[in-house]
Amino acid sequence: MSIRYLSARLAQQIDDELMNAAGAFSLDQLMELAGLACAQALAKVYGTEKYSRVLVACGPGNQGGDGLVAARHLSMFGYKPTIYMPKPGSKDIYQRLHTQCKNLNITTVTEGEEALRSALKSSDVILDAIFGFSFKGPIRSPFDSALPLLSASGLPIVSVDIPSGWDVEAGNEAGVGLNPDVLISLTAPKEGVRMFTGRHFLGGRFVPRAMEEKFNLNLPAYPTYEQIVDITEATQKL
């Protein structure tokens, strides 16, 4: 039986259940596990020898929080991350995650297009954590200028959960989203990434078995202690 793809509504329902009294996870825990999985996926494909300089593009919401966690772990893994925030998040959890990165002397870029161009010139790979599965177009400022610059850089892109600019169900139908080389789906793949053809990982090793069975997710087994599992072959056969 093949892995289940999630609609926006189902993805939100699963998130809600993970954090209600039954699931008992906190948002901090889920971000930590998701961000660690994202860092592992990038490290699996892009080693420090050639891709040590990682530009971590973070949106202002929970997706950006995952990116901040990933930036911290990448620094611990021996990478040299730089955080790019087109629009910094205002929530307390976001601010705390950013402080943790600053405590590791991870540079943050927020100044606009020229600063982004400069950061891209001194980067080897991009981790895209701008928009999550709740994104609805059109893309507004300052993201409408940032995404084309990221695409035009020619750098490999690793996207978190769903490529920024893609609709969670319709995918890149509007043609304005990023086209990543690697995707790290969290919990389970979303409907909009069915046409994605790059390297595809599943991350977020936190879904209880009872919840997996309840929603018929058909998740693959994670190997040993890994936080990610490669689902490239399985998803491209569908």
From TrEMBL:
GO terms for molecular function: metal ion binding; NAD(P)HX epimerase activity; nucleotide binding. The lineage of its organism: Eukaryota, Fungi, Dikarya, Basidiomycota, Agaricomycotina. Residues 11-219 form the YjeF N-terminal domain. Keywords: Cytoplasm, Isomerase, Metal-binding, Mitochondrion, NAD, NADP, Nucleotide-binding, Potassium. HAMAP family: NADHX_epimerase. Its cofactor is K(+). This is NAD(P)H-hydrate epimerase. Catalyzes the epimerization of the S- and R-forms of NAD(P)HX, a damaged form of NAD(P)H that is a result of enzymatic or heat-dependent hydration. This is a prerequisite for the S-specific NAD(P)H-hydrate dehydratase to allow the repair of both epimers of NAD(P)HX. SUPFAM superfamilies: YjeF N-terminal domain-like. It is found in: Cytoplasm; Mitochondrion. K(+) binds at residues 63, 128, 164. InterPro entries: YjeF_N_dom (IPR004443), YjeF_N_dom_sf (IPR036652), YJEFN_prot_NAXE-like (IPR032976). (6S)-NADPHX binds at residues 62-66, 132-138, 161. It catalyses: (6R)-NADHX = (6S)-NADHX; (6R)-NADPHX = (6S)-NADPHX. The keyword Transmembrane helix does not apply. GO terms for cellular component: mitochondrion. Its main location: cytoplasm. Belongs to the NnrE/AIBP family. Its EC number is 5.1.99.6.
